[in-house]
Specification:
Blueprint (H helix, E strand, L loop, with lengths): L4 H5 L11 H4 L17 E2 L4 H14 L3 E4 L16 E4 L15 E5 L4 H9 L3 E2 L12 H6 L7 H4 L6 E7 L5 E4 L25 E8 L1 E2 L3 E9 L2 H15 L3 E7 L1 H11 L10 E9 L8 H11 L5 E4 L3 H19 L8 E3 L5 H15 L4 E7 L4 E7 L3 H14 L24 H14 L14
Helix pairs in contact: 7-9, 8-10, 11-12
Amino acid sequence: MSDDPLLVALAGHDLAPLSDPDACARFATDATRRVESVPALVLRPADTAGVSAVLAACHAAGRPVVVQGGRTGLSGGARVRPGEVVLSLERMRSLGPVDPLSAQIEVEAGATLQAVQSAAAQHDLVFGVDLGARGTATIGGMVATNAGGIRVLRYGMMRAQVAGLEVVLADGSVISAMRGLDKDNAGPALHQLFIGSEGTYGVITRALLRLHPAPTLQANALIAVDDVRQAQALLRHLRARLGGLLSAYEGIWPEVYEGATARLGTTPLPCGAGLYLLAEFQGMQHILRAEAFEAALIEAYEAGLCRDIVVAQSGREHDHLWALREACVEYTFGLGELVPHDLSLPAHALPAFLDKARALLARIDTEARPYIYGHLGDGNLHYIVQTARSSEVSTALNALAAGMGGSITAEHGLGQDKAPYLAMVRSGAEIQLMGTLKRALDPAASLGRGRLLPD
């Protein structure tokens, strides 16, 4: 074991430390798979007291800290810099009992999304955010990045699911805002400050999460359309017919659709359309007509809003269509080193952005090839590019999205990789305020250096 003086200061705490390079190697990076430095020390506390002790000791010693959960991030937030101590919450996985009356559950930050989903399901409840990485992504990381996922249309982002938080500040102080009241106007809701702060203002150790009644009726369909303008016309139609019951509206562009269906070995709709959509409807069977979703789709087809539709006729087919959407991620990850972009666009700007982005890529790199899919209902595009000129492409695409009223990150956070582009989407006054909060909460700047705010 290492003779690191930090361990001497922390003697007596259950931290399950690691210092062997081979054991520490798995903590070097996140889903970006880029490695800058293998940590010399990984601390894995078992509880909030352990987290507090680690942060207090690192604060006193001037040691920089990077916080890690499931390491599923795609913006370099958990990627280790030289000299950083890794604070991993992987041992803090406990879940409290579900409170069926308030529809809430208290969990430690290292609990996985899948564990929360399973606990909720035992009480006929669901958790509002769902991701393909559900088996690995942790609640603390999802809160810290304000994760989105596939059902933002119905339930909102992670921010809407959080009723309370326990947070440890950089000096080891513990802030508990876990009342979970729907109405509480005793000053600002302090827990909201840490949602989306990416571990730079404090370390989330526990969360009180809101749950929702499980739908007893759900249906989905894969729909082929000519282009994004037709897809938006169809979205308006479905919203008018189904209102808030439209739970998901995903877009898959042809290059990704062909690769994902080949990966699955099945093609629900023929290739050749300009865009493929996965729409889902959820509600309560005793107050809804099961035919409402299909009726809305038939109307859309007859009105010329789409060219082909396949509606899932069973739970198995429903899951199979969602497997196609998840295969989009697996397919693009399997293509090698690509440049991902997690862009958010106003609905009215989407068609023009797509046209301008392709023209922009052609000017920068004639060999560049885009792979696009995402959450079309909320304007979030995963615009992934195969290019040898990654820096120029990223700068140009982020600037284009920002210039059209969009954002350079919709749900993946800034991390290290997007922090340099922050000024594209936040004013000088906003960045100054973010810096003021950072200095107040972490005066030594020991937490998450270079994340969220650029160096």
